[in-house]
């Protein structure tokens, strides 16, 4: 299309393509290296470092400028021309930079974390492949290619979750993640098909830009009318539901969220990159891309589901004892916030939260990685049979792992949303806008911001519980095993540097010079020139204050309970506890409602195949056999029998004639006489 | 009075005796004797029927020829028997089966 690009533009496009292609190149090189090769880590890291630099350049050139859109003709079917290319606007360059920035510390961290793994090289192959898919996903401009990379992201995630495929749980987990994602993929595919049927194009820029085709389409009298076509409005709903399914599967929203906690079976560094910061953000990114497509009512549904997901996941995180599971549920909860923000129209805040969350959640996961690594170390050194991820066995680690402890505190405060951190800026923005949104609506929709508010206190509680159990108090494992040998520490620079880097990124200065007002964050300003920038109503003051004062109380409360003070112990038998501990029984529900019927259907099909289909075939088989046996019998006894009879006759005649030829002279004479006699007798008789 | 019938009867008896000897004896010499008996039966018949050709006596003449021929064949047959004996060390016709194919 744009044949005569300005020079700078074509440079930017080349840089973007390089950012996308470098990890793929690294994956290909690593694929050719031996499985154990230690070079692989440096190949992948080098690709990401270069990608990081280039994407920073691209970001600085494109941010807040005109979107840069190039495409070439990909293929033609009949009259339809399908184009493919890159679309660089604020949201895609932001994601491009974010993914490379998060991937960088994770790669460095992984070189140390996976050092002793037998399939070190393969790990980096997968990791680079994932980065390629994700980076391509954010810059691509065609829905068809978007779908392809969407699938590839799911696929590489599948590979990485099941990286330790000798563990049964990991295999179950990656299967579950893959199937859940497939359900979402079906939704996305059907949405793409409907959109193409309606607008006759796959081009994201043409479809969803300001004043694009989707803007011009209207819904009137039960018809969905665009310039090119019109169809019943039901199809618009179906397409929306399809997109929502895709979002729910990738970004772990209710009811398709159950794969994410299980996905924690993968290496922790993978969880940090994929299941906390980038891949799960793909769903929110998709929402951002197709945002104009949603009508007001659909956005409301989105907000309700986001709110419910956030609340449910936070309530589950309260009682989990697995370090990574708590973090996984907090991820689901935060993703719920992002969906909620999209639903209430806080487009900018949602993406802002996506970015800040990526940093602090990645940081928390890397911290978890260090802790698990050291617990594993203790386990192996002392030959214990413990679960290295169980927070009930930890405690007092702040003295052993000082740097990790500081990083964890920074990450946790950001997750709770305490001022001076990035999480405060983005999360309070969402809360405020949620309240503003609910103002002009029916009363029960007030539940959405209230639920979000409640969730933020729950977050404060479970995060404090986690930190208190892991880092404060006494080391509980020492009580059970007093002779424990402990040689643990923060680890080498590959651990320290990523933690420091991410911890710095989780603080406010990166996003806003004013640590208290989210409206001043540069990221937020550029994403959506929102019309409520002015601090016009009371929410802007009261919510941050209210939330944070209560959060601090909740944090202190949790700290007091879970360190040695033990002023109060929660009952562990109540209905609410069991509901939370069993993850709202959703897994069990799916097991009974979905898996069992599916297995039953499978068994029925097997039975049907075995008994009916095979039965018919066996019957035919038997009939054929019988006919064959009959033919064989006929052949043997009738046809062959006739021939044998002829042969026997001839033989007996021969034998009879042979009797006369026995070489005895006198016998010949006998015969002669006999024949003469017979001739005479005959002559007389006739 | 001796009639033609008597001659023919004697001839028939001789012939039958000859045949019997040929098919039943286990000595080639005896078989040869049987053959001679049959020849003589034939010669007897020639002579007996020669009575009806009194002018030319062709029956008698034929008989003379037949006797001479019989002597010749007997000589040949004895020579064969001798050779057979040399080869097989027996003259039992049952033992000599080389005529068989």
TrEMBL record, chain A:
One of its GO terms (molecular function) is NADH dehydrogenase activity. Its main location: membrane. One of its GO terms (cellular component) is endomembrane system. It is a multi-pass membrane protein. Gene3D superfamilies: 1.20.5.2700. Keywords: Membrane, Transmembrane, Transmembrane helix. Residues 74-124 form the NADH-Ubiquinone oxidoreductase (complex I) chain 5 N-terminal domain. GO terms for biological process: ATP synthesis coupled electron transport; electron transport coupled proton transport. It is found in: Endomembrane system; Membrane. It comes from the Bacteria. Coiled coil: none annotated. The keyword DNA damage does not apply. This is NADH-quinone oxidoreductase subunit L.
From TrEMBL, chain B:
It comes from Mucilaginibacter oryzae. GO terms for molecular function: NADH dehydrogenase (quinone) (non-electrogenic) activity; quinone binding. Keywords: Cell membrane, Membrane, NAD, Quinone, Translocase, Transmembrane, Transmembrane helix, Transport. The chain crosses the membrane at residues 7-23, 29-49, 61-85. It comes from the Bacteria. NCBIfam families: PRK05715.1-2. One of its GO terms (cellular component) is NADH dehydrogenase complex. Its EC number is 7.1.1.-. It is a multi-pass membrane protein. Belongs to the complex I subunit 4L family. This is NADH-quinone oxidoreductase subunit K. It is found in: Cell membrane; Membrane. One of its GO terms (biological process) is ATP synthesis coupled electron transport. InterPro entries: NADH_UbQ_OxRdtase_chain4L/K, NUOK/Mnh_C1-like. NDH-1 shuttles electrons from NADH, via FMN and iron-sulfur (Fe-S) centers, to quinones in the respiratory chain. The immediate electron acceptor for the enzyme in this species is believed to be a menaquinone. Couples the redox reaction to proton translocation (for every two electrons transferred, four hydrogen ions are translocated across the cytoplasmic membrane), and thus conserves the redox energy in a proton gradient.
